[in-house]
Amino acid sequence: MNSTLIKDVPVEERPRERLVKYGAKNLSTNELIAIILKTGTKDYSSKYLASEVLKMVKDVSDLKNVTLSKLISINGIGAVKAIDFLAALELGRRVYDLKPLDNNLKCNSAEKIFRHFRSELSGSNQEYFYCLYLNNQKKLIDKKLLFKGTLNKSLVHPREIFKGAYLSSAAYIICIHNHPSGNVIPSNEDINITESLVNIGKIQGIPVIDHIIIGDNNYYSFYENELIGR
Fold this sequence. Notes:
Distance between the termini: 62 Å
Structural class: alpha+beta
Order of helices and strands: HHHHHHEEHEHEE
Number of strands: 5
Helix content: 25-40%
Largest sheet: 5 strands, mixed
Oligomer: single chain
Low-confidence stretches: none
């Protein structure tokens, strides 16, 4: 076990000093994580803790699936360090997301929405259900994650979906959820939920104009497949 403390490492070999001298692109993943973790403990250096983080994944791309509970299970990484690390991962994802959703985006294309959520949901091992709330010009007002877990009627409560619409004064709603399997063909439950939400939207005067299922490399749009009219 190599738990050499940073203070015992020559100054020019320490991660922060190497970043200043050589630039972030020339640091190892271990060194970058060590910088994010900032400090180690009296027993373990930040570089050692970084190596323990990397042991939890097969490669660096799997870091996107690391959870708070997994991080704090490492001796020497508490809640503060874990939260800082997860925040850094999310910021990096947003910086390099080529098609972010923002309030200037007109949500009139299922493919456009797919490109954003493919990045956001890629590799997820459970289902996430989002609602996009749009104004009269179909521009984004708000985006909310409403449910997490296996999709079924007992979890997807229309009152929560339409409550968000009223609070944001939305004119339209687009529902989005992912299939961790990667298969985007809607299940019977998906179809039933969508029909129910569309009918409620007609009654409430806030139409649900699409329900998009996201897979690994493709998507399914209820609107594009003519299961929802506009």
